Amino acid sequence: MLLLEGNHSTGATFTLLGFSEYPDLQIPLFLLFLTVYTVTVVGNLGMIMIIRVSPQLHTPMYFFLSHLSFVDFCYSTTVTPKLLENLVVEDRTISFIGCIVQFLLACIFAVSETFMLAVMAYDRFVAVCNPLLYKAVMSQKLCASLVAGPYSWGIVSSLTLTYFLLTLSFCGSNVINNFVCEHSVIVSVSCSDTYISQVLCFAIAMFNEVSSLVIILTTYIFIFVTVIKMPSAGGRQKAFSTCASHLTAITIFHGTVLFLYCVPNSKNSWLIIKVGSLFYTVVIPMLNPLIYSLRNKDVKESVRKLINHSMQFCQRCQLHY
Prior knowledge:
Strand order of the largest sheet: 2-1-3
Strand content: under 5%
Structural class: mainly alpha
Subcellular location: Cell membrane; Membrane
Number of helices: 11
Mean pLDDT: 87
Oligomer: single chain
Largest sheet: 3 strands, mixed
GO molecular function: G protein-coupled receptor activity; olfactory receptor activity
Distance between the termini: 60 Å
Order of helices and strands: HEHHEHHHEHHHHH
Number of strands: 3
Family: Belongs to the G-protein coupled receptor 1 family.
Membrane topology: Multi-pass membrane protein
Keywords: Cell membrane, G-protein coupled receptor, Membrane, Olfaction, Receptor, Sensory transduction, Transducer, Transmembrane, Transmembrane helix
């Protein structure tokens, strides 16, 4: 709070350019992103509800999946409403505090998702490599600790980066050539020395990406070796099918992150960065519940049962009245 009071930039405003260079596409983009956000909200909250009300889904795997859905919902809700607003209004400004809060929340959920996927990889490792000990190993206490880890590190990472952003000064034109308040675009409009903030952000981002990928790759190497040694083709197919949805989600998420890391920092690359950021912050939260529902027999069966129960309840109500 003292840092905020001593920072003269707290009264500054930023202009999020977003996709304003395409005026003819503003309404089509608004409708597109509104549809995506609606699917995201319904898909992720629906997934959480289905897991909570279906006893057969009360397992560690679906416990982690419900938290992944929660993170995706929160992440999308942090970014998309402001994006939609800026597509239909001429005033695309956002206050300094609003920009910092958006970055703080987006960073928490982005980091949490990174390690939540790693936690889910460990869960699949135990399920495939030690199936007889799965329930004993993946105890309720351990599952709670594994979920608390990504949230805790997300909060620590975000607060650390936000603290150093609050030490920067902003003056003159604060035009952000993006639709979201990311770290790189915030420091790009600062008129003070951003070296420490940039180095710290790079170090945290590299640690998060490398450590999570090491965990995921290590667990899947063990899974692959275990599956190859299985005597029956049916057993191998079942093992691979339990990991298919998670592998798809990991490939899309980390593929997008690595792509953004590889994009050169130049004026010509801003459109690519914006499209990549759009996929990362808006599209992926929509895709995850679709991936896990369309490729998962347990989820599809639970949905069928819920629909049947709802229809039977409606029929009984009609007969009663």
